[in-house]
Amino acid sequence: MDSSRLQRFPTSTCLLRQVGGSWSMEPRPLQVEGYREELGEGAALTMVKIPAGSFLMGSPEGEPERFDDEGPQHEVTLGAFWMAQTPITQAQWRAVAAWQQLERDLKPDPAQFKGDNRPVERVSWHDAQEFCRRLSQRTGQRYGLPSEAQWEYACRAGSTTPFHFGATLTPELANYDGNNCYANGPKGPNRGQTTEVASFPANDWGLHDMHGNVWEWCEDHWHDSYNLAPGDDQPWLIAAAAANEQKLLRGGSWIGDPGDCRSAYRSHDEAVSDDDDVGFRVVCLPQDPSLNP
């Protein structure tokens, strides 16, 4: 990736603090470094820098609504990479769906909830892979789905709390079923559908919609615990897996509870599934070490 393409993008982040019996949002402006990948048809993909580092993956045993498959916690060390600032939108999807087919056809307009700037949904893991293959071939870059470790590392952005915003979540910060609350957090509206990407504050690394809106496919196969999990950024795969093998989903969605949106929460579905609460975002791996994020 040509370093001359790097830009600074303005956005905003927010920290959620408890003050007395209520929760207070502390917004602040943020500048992130990244680049734009032009897709045609007026669509472009904004990729932001995710630095190399280490973190503790999974949730501590005392975290509210924790599940056993979120442990044991283990240290993971990752190289630098680039990640899409938002889930793939319908405009971005439509542009790439019009490109030459490589291994499978892509429907140009699969989403249930229409809108150019809403996340694409009703796309299977296999569909997301075809999107990445086309993007890689067209650009000459290594695009793909994030590994589960890359996803959680990027979502946390240095945080250790259940959400990158803090100890709880509010419907003012993410799109989920606001009829339910987490850890004494406030209730709010249940929007009942997706919202436009980047409608809510980003995390400290400039990524939007890591909590809620749509579930996001990861590269990995499903494992029901982190026993024997790798300690690096590579996807954890099963050799000779079937086409409908269970694949990882992260982030929660518009239809789910706030607890399902936690940074450590894990879900899964068959790779062939294409539900209206499932989308994806992409990562790009640097090919020239001198241009590492």
How would you characterize this protein structure?
It is a single chain. The chain is α+β, with helices and mostly antiparallel strands and 293 residues long. It has one domain (3-291): Alpha-Beta Complex (paralog of FGE (formylglycine-generating enzyme)). The chain is built from three helices and twelve strands. The strands form three sheets. Strands 1-2-3-6-12-7 form a six-stranded antiparallel beta sheet. It has a four-stranded mixed beta sheet with strand order 10-9-8-11. The radius of gyration is 18 Å and the shape is globular. The mean pLDDT is 94.
Quick overview of this protein structure:
The protein is an alpha+beta fold and 293 residues long. 11% of the residues lie in helices and 27% in strands.
